[in-house]
Automatic annotation (TrEMBL):
NCBIfam families per UniProt: HAD-SF-IA-v1
Pfam families documented for this protein: HAD_2 (PF13419)
Family according to the record: Belongs to the HAD-like hydrolase superfamily.
Name the UniProt record assigns to this protein: HAD family hydrolase
Keywords: Hydrolase
GO molecular function list: phosphoglycolate phosphatase activity
GO biological process: DNA repair
Length: 218
């Protein structure tokens, strides 16, 4: 395999946190007097809180305090996170996969989540298998902008063709497409298989076990 590094998304890829994200988004949307369909909610939940607020403002021609919305959504999410014990959110095969790839590749996590959340999820055991973590606090422009990937490439001294990115969303796919990085989709998160295929993934996996076979890991 030509790759020197594996980059991974976190929410919906390594950990099963999409339901918490959607619940906090829905709570904030409802609290500020809006209603969205379940399908629209799923689409909006791929966005950051600020972008969801902009969508509501633009679509409904209604202004409200942007930072009140962001902080409300954040409080709900943190409450859900504490209730669900974040260290138990991992998909059953995620930690084993991290351990296996760390023996052959450089490993980076590129996530739209904040450092606060990442520190709640990752223990010392997982951190020893990760060379770099790029959160939304580390960049000015988040996914699907290419800045998170460029930061990781620069810090790990890699070229885009030396990296495989594994993610669960169209945001991941679009970022990879723009950055010229190979994309492998995992249909355990926010986007459907049909949506993911629009971004030309190498294939769409149901689990890390399938990805291990693709990479030839034992």
């Amino acid at each position: 395999m030509k790759y020197k590094a594996i980059f991974l998304d976190m929410d919906g890829t390594l950990i099963d946190s999409i339901s918490l994200i959607m619940k906090s988004d829905k709570a904030a949307i409802n609290a500020f007097g809006f209603e969205v369909s379940n399908q629209r909610l799923r689409t909006l939940s791929m966005l950051h809180s600020r972008d969801i607020a902009y969508y509501l403002m633009d679509t409904n021609k209604k202004n409200f305090d942007l930072f009140d919305f962001i902080n409300f959504r954040r409080r709900v999410f943190v409450g859900l996170l504490k209730k669900h014990l974040p260290k138990n959110l991992w998909f059953s095969d995620s930690k084993e996969f991290l351990d296996k790839i760390s023996k052959k590749y450089k490993v980076a996590i590129i996530t739209g989540s904040r450092k606060m959340f990442v520190s709640e999820v990752l223990t010392k055991k997982e951190l020893k298998n990760i060379n770099l973590i790029v959160t939304s606090d580390d960049v000015e422009h988040k996914k699907p902008d290419i800045e998170p990937v460029l930061v990781a490439l620069k810090k790990l001294k890699l070229k885009n063709k030396e990296v495989l990115f594994i993610g669960d969303s169209t945001q991941d796919g679009l970022m990879c497409q723009r950055a010229g990085v190979d994309f492998l989709a995992k249909k355990t998160g926010i986007s459907t298989e049909k949506e993911l295929k629009k971004y030309d993934p190498l294939f769409v996996a149901s689990s890390f076990k399938e990805i291990e076979k693709f990479l030839g890991l034992k």
